Amino acid sequence: MGERVLVTLDGALADANAPLLYADDIGALRGDGVFETILVRGGTATALEFHLARLRRSAQALELPEPGLSKWRAAVELACKEWGSDEEGMLRLIYSRGRDSEYDAPAGLTPTEPKPTAYVLVSPVPARVATARAEGVKVMSLARGISVDLAQAAPWQLLGAKTLSYATNMAALRFARRMGAEDVIFHSTEHRVLEGPRSTVVIARDKQLITPPAKSGVLPGVTQRSLFAVAEKQGWECKYQSLFTADLFDCDSIWLLSSITLAARVNQLDGVRMSAPDNAQEIIDMVNLGIERPGTIGDW
What we know:
The chain is α+β, with helices and mostly antiparallel strands. It contains eight helices and 14 strands. It has helices at 26-30, 48-61, 69-83, 128-135, 150-153, 167-178, 222-233, 280-292; strands at 5-8, 13-14, 33-41, 44-45, 89-96, 117-124, 137-143, 183-187, 200-205, 208-211, 237-240, 253-258, 262-269, 272-273. The strands form two sheets. Strands 7, 8, 9, 10, 11, 12, 13 and 14 form an eight-stranded mixed beta sheet that branches. Strands 2-1-6-5-3-4 form a six-stranded antiparallel beta sheet. Helix 7 (222-233) packs across helix 8 (280-292).
């Protein structure tokens, strides 16, 4: 296993330390593309079909060419094989619009058929992940500056699509760190709970698991969906329901779910400490079971 593994969509292994993108790649110039991040565990890309389904939906939202999912599966399989099975890995699917020069040809020349940029990259899991899983995270709530109605009123905003345009999300995380926190929960102008910069928000209350609905403009969570699939079979009531920020202080626990960290319990929110509930380990176990179940695109 190398430090990183890079596979292009044509099934070729590439040098992960050599240049890959053209200088005019639209993904780099404008963030005009989509991506997925997947946990590699035991030599397998977890919840792969859920991620592929979301990749396809995000590509459709950006009007990118239909991604050939069979090619993505083959590239992922090769990347996982090259990575090995001794430790977890962070696998990214990157799919952008391609080169700007293929769209904006000089006067008198006919643009060539655009060729999207597509590749799979596996890297080590960041060190922060183990701490977040074991100890939880300190979180602050931040205004996202949008209404929950924006997703339906302005579909061109691409809310609910996993695009490469993550500058605002990363800025929010840097701001949180300056304020002594480790992560963020965004809320709308109506003080409705939205999501984290790289996670889905789920609260546990009694035997219920509740997460904001996609119509509020949040990205549908693969890990959250996997959790719900297991939890419902184990007697939990799983709901997609709007939550106010006040609801975060009226529940048994708050969880930030993501594909790499999996389940990070919020141990402090806006300076208020939150104790672990008795069923914390049960929720963690259900998340682990959920992401390891096969799943199909039809399940999504």
